[in-house]
Amino acid sequence: MFNLIHFLTMIENLTSMEEQGNLHIVENMDVNNLPQLMQNVLSLANTPAEKDMLLMSALTACGSVMPNLYVKYGIGAKRYYSNLQLFIVGSAACGKGIANLALELVKPIHEQAPIIIPGDTTYPAFYQTLARQNGRGYIHESEGSVITDIWRSSTANYNTALRKAAEHETISRARCREASVIENPQVSMVLTGTFSQYKALVPSIENGYFSRLLTLIIDEHQAFNSRYVQPSENSGEVIKAAAEQLYHLYETLLFTRPREFSLTKEQKSRLGHHLETAYPTLIRMLGEEFHSVVLRMAVHIERIAMILSALRGNMDVCSDADYATAELIGNKLILHMAQAYQLVKGTEKVEQPKVKPLDQKAILLSLLPDEFESKTLVAEAQSQGIPQSTVMRWCSQWIDRGTLCRLSYGHYKKIA
Question: How far is residue 97's CA from residue 85's CA, in Å, rounded to a whole number?
Fold first, then answer.
């Protein structure tokens, strides 16, 4: 049962970055209330931090392969599918590698119906792969530097695409000779990395992606001796069995009509009570910008409840046990996101932009084809957050310097 006083006490402790134990998820739940598949997977983790990382990464992986299952939320009764996007933030010594077990759950499905998209993928390749997979994708990357390095020149593109995918909004791409759209994208993602790598993807709390990306802060270090602990002899069998169960669930949902999952009337009322009591207190303590995080956490809680229930074979109405578990996870995650909010906000005024204006010009030019039209130039610039007036001024400078030549009105060619 939700304890408002205890929740507000945790919020007060959070503001001073104290009592990391209050942020643990699995340690504060009755594991026996989880679906058996999740219980089996969590048996492979040892420390509270490992259990939290494995729980959230496994939930995200499982949610990536639940087609045709959705929940309606909001005034417009918008459909939300089971896709979660997660970033585990921690140091190099916190044991983030355990999250890779979640990837093993999805691999058997990927072998039959490709869904995994490598993190080391340029934005054009990402878009093409997502389109080829009918808008469904699962990104899993344990090396944050791979993500930030490959995305460095296209952060705005990825940020926008992932933000839209989190809400299942149409992703469009226009080029000189082609234009295409991906309707109803369903993308799940698990990334692990350091705070600086997280900040490269979410540079500001005002960025719309911040509230859509679930964040798990691991402020602990793995004991040196634990690095030499041999994994359980049956760990491979546990993951294999869990992957087989997930595969059967995927097949069941794939060959069925779209199904609406729903909370009960009482559960919806209870969720609304959160928004009206505990969460506004958190907003007042952190700032009005945190309001969007609070609102979207309600959607995340419904998605998590849907994943938990589906793993039991229940695709219709949420049980009280699964709702209680989802609510607990949401309460803890919002504290993690509050901590991330404070960290990002605290570095906004002191961190210098990673891309200087001159570098931005060079990057933009490198992304353009050898011959292009004005509309291609403007579209690419806007995807990078560059105003049209600015890029047209740059175009004139490139022509003056001999970098470009004008073949005809609005038609340009690069000069080697």
Answer: 17
Task: State the number of CA atoms in the 13 A half-sphere of 191 facing the CB.
Answer: 28
Tens-place pLDDT, residues 91-110: 766 678 899 999 999 999 99
Any domain includes 352: no
Judged by DSSP in three states, 351 sits in coil
Residue showing tokens 């459909």? 79
Residues 284, 325 share a domain: yes
- pLDDT tens figures, 147-159: 666 665 555 567 7
Record the pTM: 0.78
DSSP β-bridge partners for residue 412: 372, 406
pLDDT (tens digit, 9 = 90+) per residue, 288-329? 888 889 889 999 999 999 999 999 999 999 999 999 999 999
In this structure, are residues 182 and 170 in contact, taking their beta carbons and an 8 Å threshold? yes
User: Is 182:133 a contact under the CB 8 Å cutoff?
Assistant: no
Whole-number Å distance between alpha carbons of 330 and 322: 12
Task: Please tell me whether residues 370 and 333 are part of one structural domain.
Answer: no
List all residues 6 or more positions away from 359 whose beta carbon is below 8 Å from its beta carbon: none
Same domain, yes or no, for 184 and 299? yes
CB 52 within 8 A of CB 218: yes
CA atoms 341, 346, 351, 353: torsion sign: positive
Q: For residue 379, give the CATH number of its domain.
A: 1.10.10
